[in-house]
């Protein structure tokens, strides 16, 4: 199934990033970021000899660098000369995570509405929606805590770009200079697991999260012509 990780930029603009949920993975082995998985042993009378405290834990499958570009902050100058830009607008970039199981329920309701013209399934209760939002926020905080320990202590649940810095760059003769403001961060693939009372491990869900960091700056590159999304804007 597919999961959804949404990156929202507060203000007048927003970006939504669709992500494909990674395939189901095998039950994790013991390592530094997961809980210990015990084998199940039984006594002669069939009663489990070992009991475990129920708990949940995360396993990370990949952590890749990711740039979150701020809208309306891309500039093109040239040919030649120099380019200078600064950011003074206010934006908020934060992480949001959804389980694939929640997405599957949503798609099931959509198919019911499409296949039947006479009945409309009732919307989920308000209490259920509140529980879902609370679970997503708790999962995001847990991912951040573990990634701060593993990867980068500067990871943030949200990052506000209020005042950037001025950047100046000399453009090569005959070339066009491009600047775009970005927030650095990571794209993380994860799976959530639950340990039940008999020490067995059960999968809860998988997904992809986009996590911003408290680091930002300009990206500069040069092109022969002014371009946008791979299309030439002008001959000169």
From TrEMBL:
It comes from the Bacteria. Keywords: Signal. Residues 1-26 form the signal peptide. Residues 98-133 are annotated as: Disordered. Residues 104-114 have a biased composition (Basic residues). This is Uncharacterized protein. It comes from Thermostaphylospora chromogena.
